[in-house]
Specification:
Largest sheet: 8 strands, mixed
Order of helices and strands: EHHEEEHEHEEEEE
Distance between the termini: 37 Å
Radius of gyration: 16 Å
CATH class: Alpha Beta
Number of helices: 4
Strand content: 25-35%
Length: 206
């Protein structure tokens, strides 16, 4: 892709399992990682164990600046989840979060049978909720134990909307004292207060 007036577009490349350690070099905000994400080494390990997980690197001018993870819902063949989403701290607040969501929608909408894209977000994350609403995500369910919101994007195949299938916990994940799902038990919601880092629903690791 060519640049326009010095603007370099984001480039998305799937990172193979042999190269997953690249994401551990990202300069993420340590507080965001501790409170909202998970250690990058644990995310890499989870993706390696999940045969259907895809980790997509986000590059700007040849530099890896972030990533996101997508995976299918084991209990609903028509649904895919947007999992972990992270941007290096030097590239937050530049509109990249919205661009990444557009890329996620376009990527998953091309998958045969994918009718819905879902993610989890805490109710108090108003900035993220506004961003998701602008990109066509709507509230479809609330997890009763935690109050986490299930947001869904309809890929527009014309099929009537159905009920949200229950979320499932997979092996290797745990709930903290508040009921939030984590790779390891600790306090903290799924989503950052900004688009810098964001946890999607785990629970699909084998």
């Amino acid at each position: 892709m060519s640049s326009f007036r010095g603007y370099s577009p984001l480039v998305y490349r799937r990172i193979g399992r042999a190269d997953l350690a690249r994401v551990e070099l990202l300069d993420l905000d340590p507080e965001q990682v501790e409170r909202y994400l998970d250690p990058l080494s644990e995310i890499v390990a989870a993706v390696r164990k999940g045969p259907a997980h895809s980790l997509i690197g986000v590059e700007l001018a040849g530099e890896l600046i972030g990533f996101y993870v997508v995976h299918p819902d084991r209990r609903d063949a028509a649904c895919w989840w947007l999992g972990w989403l992270a941007l290096s701290r030097a590239h937050q607040g530049s509109g990249h979060g919205g661009a990444i969501l557009v890329a996620v929608r376009e990527r998953l909408s091309r998958i045969p049978g994918c009718r819905r894209i879902r993610l989890l977000v805490v109710a108090e994350n108003h900035g993220a909720r506004r961003l998701y609403a602008r990109h066509g995500f709507r509230l479809v369910d609330i997890r009763p134990r935690t109050g986490d919101l299930v947001l869904e994007h309809d890929c527009g195949d014309g099929r009537p909307e159905g009920q949200v299938t229950p979320l499932s916990l997979g092996r290797g994940f745990a709930s903290d004292a508040s009921g939030h799902l984590r790779l390891r038990p600790k306090a903290g919601p799924h989503a950052a207060w900004v688009i810098g880092v964001e946890r999607g629903p785990p629970g699909l690791a084998p």
